[in-house]
Design goal:
The chain is an alpha+beta fold and 506 residues long. It contains 16 helices and 16 strands. The chain starts with a strand and ends with a helix.
């Protein structure tokens, strides 16, 4: 165990999925030509006034309710003063002393499988800055202000994380949550979900925190983990050599896998916060909160618990399948279609959420586990390989359930099912049509299988003698030969049982 303890807090910036900016009517769509989505309000021209986007407030409250936080009945916007080329006003409208959300919490799974609670200090509304562009402009830099004024929810954690893996687990959980709530698209490549990591180390057992460095604008889970690992090693090496850590802002260079100094870290007083004189305090009443609460979906932890309970899945499987609303819905649709094909009500498109306990139990837990394995395995692998979202899957839930039904009724083996799936994926045909056209049905006739076994044994007398002399591993040889002779169509369970008897001379 290291003599040093790592202390990490994250500031996550989630761009809210509003159609217009937080204080103006400019569009927020990504990818527009530079500087075509910034109006005079975004640019802070004299005489213009910001007007708060109520949808941004609703989304912030929705997030606060989902983490069990306190939603402030009165919050205030402030001006955060700093100077940077892509900040057209010379200040950012944010929230400081009175944020809209405070004191929430989130649970994550740590390495040993235990559940850890991470505190969330606050979540406040603010506007995003523009972007500085440096590529393709020679020695010059360009400024694109399309992003300026896009609504952000900054989610500030307590310094509760003690490893890079915990930080990534927490960030992934927030990422899942904001997408479940449909308040952020979570697109990290486009910058709509990113974080700053505050990292420090201290001698193990000491209560006082060490001096922290802030690593800015990390936009992938892998970069968060690598940047923290590098920064921890840098700080420990510095302290052990007699140096001291400076409180500063650093950038992570993914090409060199290192952090480098950007500027000294500002304190709150450096920003000279003061209430924005152009914006009234935000007053939120109970009826507004109740209305937002009524729109909350089933949250990830609740869905995972239901999957584990209703489908007898492990906590790991339930967690993977509930990692996104779309994946969870796909899985439930597959299970629902399997349930319908086994005599249950027709629920192929709506899943089993509203089914009674008795109805749910008509489907074998083994069938639900089979569906889980295929959604997490073959389906997810194909999606990743072709860089597709679950919504763009080339195999529908109903089609996948049809394939799994042929495994359940032993028409085909699991191995052949994988070949059928690939054809379904590439050609869009249903499983039954592929199985019929390719002659892939399993051989389940015991007499036919025995006949092939007899022929294989007769053709391999030496291997038979060696097996009966104690070389048990040759059993796999005989299985392979029978499968080869049947084109892989022999029912595996029947084959194993019949072969064992034949090899023993029964």
């Amino acid at each position: 165990m290291s003599d040093w303890e790592v202390v990490i807090g994250l500031e996550i910036h989630a761009q809210l999925a509003t159609k217009s900016k937080i204080f103006s009517g400019s569009a927020t769509a990504y990818g527009a030509p530079p500087n075509t989505q910034a109006n005079l309000v975004d640019l802070a021209y004299p005489g213009v006034l910001p007007v708060l986007n109520a949808e941004a407030v609703r989304m912030a409250v929705k997030f606060g309710l989902s983490i069990g936080a306190e939603v402030a009945r009165r919050s205030v916007f402030a001006r955060k003063n700093y100077f940077y080329p892509d900040l057209p006003k010379g200040y950012q409208i944010s929230q400081y002393e009175l944020p809209v959300v405070k004191q929430g919490k989130l649970q994550i799974l740590v390495d040993d499988g235990a559940v850890k609670t991470v505190g969330i200090t606050r979540a406040h509304l603010e506007e995003d800055a523009g972007k500085s562009l440096h590529e393709g402009l020679g020695a010059a830099s360009g400024i694109d202000l399309n992003r300026a004024g896009t609504p952000l929810l900054e989610i500030v954690s307590e310094p509760d994380m003690r490893s890079a893996k915990e930080a990534v687990a927490y960030m992934k959980k927030i990422h899942t949550l904001v997408r479940y709530l449909e308040i952020c698209d979570g697109n990290m490549q486009e910058g709509s979900f990113r974080c700053d990591a505050n990292v420090s180390v201290r001698p193990r057992g000491r209560e006082k925190f060490g001096t922290r460095a802030e690593i800015k604008n990390l936009n992938s889970f892998r970069f968060v983990e690598k940047a923290i690992h590098y920064e921890v090693a840098r700080q420990i090496e510095l302290l052990e050599s007699g140096g001291s850590v400076l409180q500063e802002t650093r950038l992570y260079d993914s090409d060199k896998d290192e952090t480098r100094s950007m500027r000294s870290k500002e304190e709150a007083n450096d920003y000279r916060y003061f209430p924005d004189p152009d914006l009234l305090p935000v007053q939120i009443d109970e009826s507004f909160i109740s209305a937002v609460r009524a729109t909350l979906p089933e949250l990830p932890d609740d869905k995972a618990a239901r999957f584990a309970r209703d489908f007898n899945l492990s906590a790991y499987d339930a967690g993977v399948l509930s990692a996104s609303r779309e994946l969870g819905a796909y899985f439930e649709s597959v299970v629902g279609a399997m349930h319908a094909s086994h005599g249950g009500p027709g629920m192929a498109t709506q899943g089993l959420r509203e089914a009674g306990t008795a109805e749910r139990n008509e489907l074998s837990p083994a069938h639900a586990k089979l569906a889980a394995n295929w959604v997490m395995g073959e389906l997810s692998s194909a999606l990743n390989r072709d860089n597709l979202d679950i919504a763009a899957s080339r195999v529908s839930p109903l089609q996948l359930s049809g394939l799994l039904a042929r495994i359940v009724d032993q028409t085909i083996s699991g191995k052949i099912a994988k070949e059928v799936f690939e054809t379904m994926w590439s050609e869009g045909k249903p499983a039954d049509a592929i199985i019929e056209a390719s002659g892939l049905k399993q051989i389940t006739d015991a007499g036919a299988i025995e006949g092939v076994i007899d022929a294989v044994i007769a053709a391999n007398p030496k291997q038979l003698a060696d097996y009966r002399a104690g070389k048990d591993k040759l059993f796999g040889f005989f299985v392979g030969q029978v499968m080869k002779a049947t084109g892989g169509k022999a029912n595996p369970a029947q084959l194993n049982e019949l072969l064992q008897a034949k090899l023993k001379g029964k």
